[in-house]
Amino acid sequence: MNFVGKFKQIWRIRPLRNSILFIFFILAVFRIGSHIPMPGVDLVALKDLFARNQMLGMLNLLTGGAMSTFSVVALGLGPYITASIIIQLLTMVIPALEELSHEGQAGYQKMENYTRFLTVPLAFLQAYSIIKLFSQGSSPIISLTHSFDIFSTILVMTAGTMFLVWLGDLITERKIGNGVSLLIFAGIVDALPLTLQKAVVSFTAAQVVDWLVLSILAVVTIATVALIARAQRNIPVTYARQIRGNKMYGGMDTYLPLKVNQAGMIPIIFAISIVMFPSLIGQFMSRSGTVWLAKMGKNLMSVFQNQTIYGLIYFFLVVAFTYFYTAIIFHPEQIAENLQKQGAFIPGLRPGQPTSKFLHGISKRIMFTGALFLGLIAILPIIVQGVFKTTPFVVGGAAVLIVVSVVLETLDQIDAQITMYEYEGI
User: Fold this and answer.
1) Each residue of 68-89: b (16+ CB within 10 Å) or e?
2) Any residues with CB less than 8 A from the CB of 128 and at least 6 apart, and which?
3) d(Cα 162, Cα 156) in Å, to the nearest integer?
4) How many domains does the chain have?
């Protein structure tokens, strides 16, 4: 079915149409909030700082551009993402949380509540750190002198983060894409026109070849991301025949799909959240009045400004988080147990432990490809800058992965909704 036919089909289904329009409304509210600045901020100096600092630029990516305007939602979903990382790490070491994660929807809801509770103090701490960071120096970007002004600003920024978490929940409830992912996606897409405008303004005749090569690279990158996002290993599964009375049940052959990139875009988001902290801490320390502390901060900043060191650390974190997150969401023991309960088996393997070991081995092999792909996509801008030295624009690997992954996930869920409504005769 072509795009026009699909659009007409969506428009005819009233509940689906209303859900999509509601999501657009929520995204519009988010974008309006990201352009409401907080008082006492030098916006010109702030935007100039973000343009010069790559780490802050990555932070701005997660906030959908709200940080560069220091808006009421300046923290974006960063504290919530950090809280998610902490809760998932604790799940690996605290048996009670691990058991809770296996309790289905009820356990998932409790884990989400714990994540939200942790988001509040993290947002409060991050807001205070950013205000103190931008308030230091001979020409501070933020001019807040009274304690009440500082506290009220921190309170508003924390409330802004929780407001975005609530908006994300409203989107997720509509079952058309993940709310957090769609909010990040909206921020990236919103920044595209301005990025392209800057690229066109700075274009010169000497950059024709660079533009051509980078345009081809951008298309290849998008196609590769879409291909890897859809790639999967199909494990054959056979359901044993069962005779009940005079009827025979089962005997069906199907397959168990294992995606090459089971973790999606989560590892890159996690890695961005972690890799930006040393540079931010270094910048905070460099503005200190203590000489040795300021010197240590400058040294820390210089280390992470080295593109080779930064790229290696970023690549390692993405690969590590891919393995970590896949280990959390993929449970071969549970899959093998469920297959055995349903009277299913993988041809040539005994049910139970042999099946679990086989699935674990297959997952490890394809996970290596997925982790390597995510790592290369993450450091793609660094590689491009190193090859071309000066480029008219940069192919943002993380941004491309987030955009393509969110679009594919949303389209899949829309197709599922269409199938459900057609089955129900709506």
Assistant:
1) bbbbbbbbbbbbbbbbbbebbe
2) 150, 154
3) 10
4) 1
Domain presence at residue 148: yes
CATH code assigned at 23? 1.10.3370.10
Assigned domain for 108 exists: yes
How many CA atoms, within 13 angstroms, populate the side-chain half-sphere of residue 249? 7
Q: Which amino acid is at 320?
A: A
Running along the chain, 426 residues long, what does each successive block of 10 average in pLDDT? 70 85 91 83 75 65 70 86 83 81 78 91 88 72 79 91 92 85 82 69 68 77 81 83 58 80 78 75 71 79 77 87 82 84 82 87 86 84 70 57 81 81 63
pTM of the model: 0.78
Strand partners, 257: 234
Residues 6+ apart with CB under 8 A from 3: none
Range of the domain at 71: 10-201
Is 46 part of a structural domain of the chain? yes
| Burial zone of 110 (CB within 10 Å; 0-12 exposed, 13-18 middle, 19+ buried) | middle
Instruction: Annotate the chain with three-state secondary structure.
Output: CCHHHHHHHHHHCHHHHHHHHHHHHHHHHHHHHCCCECCCECHHHHHHHHHHCHHHHHHHHHCCCCCCCCECCCCCCHHHHHHHHHHHHHHHHCHHHHHHHCCHHHHHHHHHHHHHHHHHHHHHHHHHHHHHHHHCCCCCCECCCCHHHHHHHHHHHHHHHHHHHHHHHHHHHCCCCCHHHHHHHHHHHHHHHHHHHHHHHCCCHHHHHHHHHHHHHHHHHHHHHHHHHHCEEEEEEEECCEEECCEEECCCEEEEEEECCCCCCHHHHHHHHHHHHHHHHHHHHHCCCCHHHHHHHHHHHHHHHCHHHHHHHHHHHHHHHHHHHHHHHCCHHHHHHHHHHCCEECCCCCCCHHHHHHHHHHHHHHHHHHHHHHHHHHCHHHHHHHHHCCCCCCCCHHHHHHHHHHHHHHHHHHHHHHHHHHHHCC
CA triplet 245, 251, 254: central angle to 5 degrees? 150
CA atoms of 292 and 303, how far apart (whole Å): 17
Q: 132 in a domain, yes or no?
A: yes
